[in-house]
Design a protein that fits this description.
The chain has a 6-stranded parallel sheet, sandwiched between helices. The chain has 4 helices and 6 strands. It has one domain (9-192): Isochorismatase-like (Rossmann fold). The chain is 23% helix and 20% strand. The structure holds pyrazine-2-carboxylic acid and zinc ion (ZN). Residues 15, 20, 57, 65, 73, 136-137, 140-141 line the site of pyrazine-2-carboxylic acid. Keywords: Hydrolase, Metal-binding, Pyridine nucleotide biosynthesis.
Length: 194
């Protein structure tokens, strides 16, 4: 496949935060192994003048997704904590980048970067037609962001070499990739894009 990045393209990096990295509160195995790959995508989009959107989980400390508050997850990505910061080696461009916080109020969770955020408005405002999605976790927030983007009418590309899953049940990530494909997402690697 040969994909040229144009003015209608945006990169979306999902939840590359300390708590989702090995040693964090809700670790995605090898989550840190995709940082270099994502940095190359970030460089490419930045060089082309295309925008990069970074989603982040940004939960209050009594969030409903947390065990003890009605949810299934250990507390993670609590607002303004170290665990909620982006991986220190992730290259956040100085301009043409946007931070999208989700799951910010106690009563609502959001696996999709579009849920309860202005992401769709920001993309539409700039005439973005195609989104390229990487990050964690393949089987939760990446999957839901990809499906959300498809539902909103974007052409969606999933960065196979820039995603990692948690696999609470064995095979969850593989199945998530199948679902994304079946709904119309295109799975690509760095060599497909320039
Ligand atoms: C996520 C579980 C809970 C994710 C967020 O980023 O995939 N997973 N909150
Ligand atoms: Zn969360």
């Amino acid at each position: 496949m040969r994909i040229n990045i144009t003015d209608f393209d945006a990169l979306i990096i999902v939840d590359m935060q300390n708590d989702f990295m090995p040693g964090g509160a809700l670790p995605v195995p090898d989550g840190d192994k995709i940082v270099d790959s994502l940095n190359r995508y970030i460089d490419l989009f930045s060089q082309k003048g295309s925008p990069v959107y970074f989603t982040r989980d940004w939960h209050p400390e009594d969030h409903i997704s947390f065990k003890g508050y009605g949810g299934i997850w250990p507390p993670h990505c609590v607002q303004n904590t170290e665990g909620a910061q982006f991986h220190p080696e992730l290259k956040i461009p100085s301009d043409n980048k946007f931070i999208i916080s989700k799951g910010v109020s106690r009563e609502f969770d959001a696996y999709s970067g579009f849920q309860g955020t202005v992401l769709d408005d920001l993309l539409k405002e700039r005439g973005i037609k195609r989104i390229f999605v990487g990050g964690v976790a393949t089987d939760y927030c990446v999957k839901n962001t990809v499906l959300g983007g498809l539902n909103l009418g974007y052409q969606v590309f999933v960065l196979e070499d820039g995603i990692k899953g948690v696999d609470v049940n064995e095979g969850d990530s593989e199945r998530a990739v199948e679902v994304m494909k079946n709904k119309g997402a295109v799975i690509i690697n760095a060599e497909d894009i320039r």
